[in-house]
Design a protein that fits this description.
The protein has seven helices and 21 strands. It is an alpha+beta fold and about 375 residues long. It has three domains: about 100 residues, no CATH class; about 130 residues, no CATH class; about 110 residues, OB fold (Dihydrolipoamide Acetyltransferase, E2P). The strands form four sheets. Strands 2, 3, 5, 6, 7, 8, 9 and 10 form an eight-stranded antiparallel beta sheet that branches. Helix 6 crosses helix 7. The chain starts with a strand and ends with a strand. The relative contact order is 0.12.
């Protein structure tokens, strides 16, 4: 088991750029989502090409048309088997970067420190906006030393007026402190989508994440979240990551037996870990509403968690609310303690199979 912060960019010796996809990882590997792959290595039909870092790159996209994505992943598996990890604990697979394949890790904290050294007169309008946003977030009581910048903001390949500002918050308490601060904080540059804007967004961008929501449900869920907003005309996204001593699971300390696709409902008893990735909602009084095929379950074993690897389903429900979810039911056998069930949304395999159109998490509000 090993800790490595989520949402960190990694360059590999094979020319890939990847983004870490968890805070806990198997020994010798970092779980990632491939972000850019050199264009000549694979056929990228159905995916977009970009010119970055003096290269023609394919922009990997898990939401590409399913048959195109299946073909692309099949090519990837055959040509780069070292970047696929078959996990015996979950009987599932992950994209990874072997540690001996790492060329460079782009440090978000260091990047923000370096940005803060640049005299304001020498910053362009985009970077001035980043600095002002950091200053605003510090008013929550979280210092800039507990923040970082990532993605194009860090690498400098942003497009002023178009690129998002991506900020990492280190530590779960710091994450909640900023998110709660943003519920009431005001700034002349800060804007949250109105109900009307979320309605328009729902109509124009209906995806697998929103297809299980009515328009009213979608608006109610999105308008209360504070991890994404607008600041000075730029979209900003906040990624909370876990410090090494506060991860909610350790790799290899549990075994997961996949049982099949289920839809469940229950009551949220704790949402503290719902703002990290992977994150989870602790639940009780859970019941299975629907199954795909025959799924063997033991009524004496509780369904205790709904786990998400998918950003759209973070901060989806809070303590005391009824929650419903569709995903992969797993029987969990801890090294210490009782067995329990959990439902997982957003494993990589789900983007390639029938769960892609079925998975969701929503509060019954």
């Amino acid at each position: 088991m090993a800790h490595f912060y989520e949402s960190v960019l990694i360059d590999t010796i094979d020319g890939f750029q990847c983004k870490s996809y968890s805070n806990e990882h198997p020994d010798g590997y970092i779980i990632v989502k491939p972000k850019y792959i050199p264009g000549g290595m694979l056929k990228g039909e159905g995916l977009k090409y970009r010119f970055l870092f003096e290269k023609c790159l394919i922009r990997f996209n898990l939401f590409a048309q399913k048959d195109k994505l299946k073909d692309y992943v099949s090519q990837f598996r055959k040509k780069f088997p070292d970047y696929i990890y078959e996990d015996k604990n979950s009987k599932n697979w992950f994209f990874v970067v072997p540690k001996d394949k790492i060329k460079e890790v782009h440090d978000p904290r260091k990047g923000l420190r370096e940005l803060m050294k640049v005299p304001e007169r020498d910053l362009d309008s985009y970077l001035k906006n980043v600095r002002e946003l950091i200053d605003f977030l510090e008013k929550s009581g979280v210092k800039s030393e507990s923040m970082g910048i990532t993605h194009s903001t860090l690498l400098g390949n942003y497009t002023p007026g178009k690129s998002d500002i991506d900020i990492i918050i280190y530590g779960k308490n710091n994450g909640w402190k900023i998110l709660n601060y943003l519920k009431t904080a005001e700034h002349e540059k800060l804007h949250w989508k109105t109900d009307e804007e979320w309605t328009e967004y729902y109509k124009e961008h209906k995806t697998s994440e929103s297809s299980h929501f009515t328009q009213e449900e979608y608006v109610k869920h999105m308008r209360r979240k504070r991890y994404e907003g607008m600041f000075g005309g730029n979209v900003f996204t906040l990624f909370t990551v876990e410090e090494p001593d506060e991860t909610w699971f350790k790799w290899g300390e549990e075994k997961y037996e996949p049982l099949g696709t289920v839809t469940i409902k229950g009551k949220v008893t704790d949402h503290y870990n719902s703002h990290v990735r992977p994150g989870f909602y602790e639940i009780n009084n859970a019941e299975i509403l629907k199954t795909e095929g025959i799924i063997p379950t033991d009524p004496s074993i509780e369904i205790k968690k709904i786990v998400t690897f998918s950003i759209p389903f973070v901060q989806q429900a809070i303590k005391g609310e009824e929650i419903s979810a569709c995903g992969l039911l797993e029987l969990v056998t801890p090294r210490v303690g009782k067995k329990y069930y959990r439902v997982v949304v957003g494993y990589f395999d789900a983007y390639l199979n029938e769960r892609r159109e079925k998975e969701f998490i929503k509060a019954l509000i």
